[in-house]
Amino acid sequence: MGTLCLDTQSCNFHNREKARFCARCGIPLGGTLVQERYKIQNLLNKDRKTVTLSAFDQYEGRGVTVRALLPGESSPTERENFLQDAELAIAMSSHVRDAGSIYVTDYGQDGPLAFLIKSEFLLHAPTADSFKSRLTARGGNSVFPVAPPATPAIPILPSPADHLDELGRDENDMRTQVRVAIPRVSPEQVSIAFPTSHDMETKHSPTSRDWLAEGNRAYELAHYDEALAAYEAATVQNVVSVEAWSGKGATLLLLGRPEEALLAYDHALSLYPNDPDLWNSRASVLHELRRYDEEMYCYEQALAHDPRYVFAWSGRGMTLAEQGCSEEALLAFDRALMLDPGQSVIWQAMSDTLYSIGRYEDALIAINRALELETNNAALWDTKGNILRRLKKPGEALPLHERTTLLDPQNSTAWFDKGNDLRDLHRFAEALADYDHALELDPALAGAWYNRGNVLAALHMYEDALQSYDQALHYDEGLISAWYNKGSVLHELGQDAEAIVAFDRALVLNAHYIPAWNNKGLALFALGRLDEALAALDQATSFAPDEPDAWYNKAVVLEKLGRIQEAHSCHEWAQSLEQHSKQGA
Hints:
This protein is an alpha+beta fold and 585 residues long. The protein has three domains: 3-134, Transferase(Phosphotransferase) domain 1 (Transferase(Phosphotransferase), domain 1), CATH 1.10.510; 160-180 and 375-584, Serine Threonine Protein Phosphatase 5, Tetratricopeptide repeat; 187-307, Serine Threonine Protein Phosphatase 5, Tetratricopeptide repeat. It has 24 helices and nine strands. It has helices at residues 76-93, 197-203, 211-220, 224-237, 242-254, 258-271, 276-288, 292-305, 310-322, 326-339, 344-356, 360-373, 378-390, 394-407, 412-424, 428-441, 446-458, 462-475, 480-492, 496-509, 514-526, 530-543, 548-560, 564-584, and strands spanning 3-4, 14-15, 33-34, 38-46, 50-57, 62-69, 102-110, 113-120, 134-135. A seven-stranded mixed β-sheet has the order 3-4-5-6-8-7-9, covered by helices on one side. A two-stranded antiparallel sheet has the order 1-2. The radius of gyration is 28 Å and the shape is globular. The chain starts with a strand and ends with a helix.
């Protein structure tokens, strides 16, 4: 049935049997060998640039950690620098003699990976000098990072000190993406010159070589252009070879040519229409083409031929989850897990879906099931910590995020989430330290800049907070709450004209953003622009008629305009709303 990708956060691709690397993201698959030595076991973490995996060193008979660059997120210069740094680390590690110390033992390049190996020093272990690097040429690939966290607004003003308890509402959890786009691989990325299909046809007769085997071998090495040429020759050699047409489809998909991939899978299905694997693969192509109705039809066909086909149920569930059909997605995940409860990826997808609809207790149960299957998966511990923080249990979340940082100290997301726990516990100095550490690892992490600004504002360090908000907006100018909080801090500093500009930027992004209308009204009032202030507060009260603050502020503006009776009515209405709110609590 093939192998599911180890990446539980952004891939979940069902790979062909005998593949070494994931056809979608390029990381090695579980049970495969890197450099014919390190047997891959689990994915520990994946961030914007790197992937970390646990593995077993078959030469030394012990566990090791594999750290590698994500091919599509690194340039040739970055890969060269990575390998040079690894070589320097080996030289420095030669002096390590303390039992339990972590040191670099090997490095090299295999298939789509530039990698290094980290091991724990044992008194009987060989020194780093006994290992030799092995560098091999490789083909290109691409992986897309986790999207920056969403950042819901937190009203931090009129006085940030008055709203410290509300910092806990700002959830910037790094959510799992149930599927990412198929990467595009350009021919010039391939670093080994293999014969083209034309060369192969002119130098050899179609029957002189096993083109299918050569295609499979090139595919497994991530040499996709060469694989495509071989598969095309294989289809000439044997026009009814289902595997050749299927391999051609998979390779075209990796090369960013989904329309052609679809034609290849259609040809394969014309030869063997009862194969659920082919229907499932065709569904993946249609997903990339955003032809979701046809994708769903493919899952239905796969399940018609094999109702116990787990990956069709899980693929159906993940697409439904992406489309916001959460309840239907959960039913599909249930079916998949009834058939194979040992799929941690599906448990995590179920947890994420439950999280998205606010069923946090159920999400916690699902992520615990995933952790039973993969106890050393850093991403799962991080997800569980985020669920606990949503349940307003930051004290329980903190040790889980600490564990994540121990499993992978280079994971910027883990440090960011740990900072959020400390923020919610009002341990602001420690939270700032963790945000700073996350930003050292990933300076483009907009959510960390944003939350850093919130903590600084809570500490009344307004100028520093403004700098953090500006950095957040530099990396994500669509961050509505950063525009709002920037405006609120500017208002607190008496810079009301600048504050209005920031509030307007927030309102361009969301015209129904009530806090921005309210605080824009306050800034206009401070500038003496009373009619405009009243208009802004009218918007706030029309969009949120049950919000007492906007009615109180509207009463103040009306009184200043001399409209005493209206001011009195607004004030009374605000009091009644506030009283009703207290009774409801």
